[in-house]
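U., I forgot to send this yesterday:
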Amino acid sequence: MSQDDTLAHYARYQSLKLRRHPEGVLELIMGAKDASGKLSTADHRMHRELADIWRDIDTDPLTRVVVIRGEGKGFSGGGDLDLVEDMADSFEVRSRVWREARDLVYNIINCSKPVVSAMHGAAVGAGLVAGLLADISIAARDARIIDGHTRLGVAAGDHAAIVWPLLCGMAKAKYYLLLCETVSGEEAERIGLVSLCVEEPELVERAFEVAQRLARGSQTAIRWTKYALNNWLRQAGPTFDTSLALEFMGFSGPDVREGLSSLRERRAPNFAPDAPF
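Result:
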């Protein structure tokens, strides 16, 4: 049976590249859009596929462990600005993407197969959700982890409220999320935001070493341990749901328009000094 035949389970996915490796390791690649190595961004299709694929991985009989990584200059480039504009303009789009953002977080948490992330370069947006919710997260020393929500003018929804305080503590979570500060891979390991930090040339090899160890272990023991530990995240579900609702409320307000314009024009945002809340 060819690799293409074994990947028939994932035939509908177009924005994500999938490769099977020995011992039940599945490689999930958020690939560069072109030969220049430009960072891939989560457009309409990729955002939907990133949310959906974890259900298919969960039911894939040939997969024991997943390695998710980026290709090109970084791990993930954040939300596509056209998608952000569509969300600001359309209640229908905003409602659909809210559901996808919710499903992305809960589908990763509920996926029975262990997930290993390998983050290099910039790690932003929907890709970062998978990167930090992975069961074993590995970052290159000079990786740049950025939760860009407040820079855009919306609340830090996605994964931030559900996992950052648990990983690195409330004080660090507030510092990095409120100020939209960049966290290097080295600092992320120091504060507990990621599992491991390695030099970039070693990153993918180390991720596969970890994945192979997981694949060779007792699958019931590993999956049940993951399930039990993730109850800490499930308990934070109401906090996550609130943060996501507030984020998407922000997409109907004026600040996201200024945030979007400032990003397109490559300048600092000039947000209004007052807020209704």
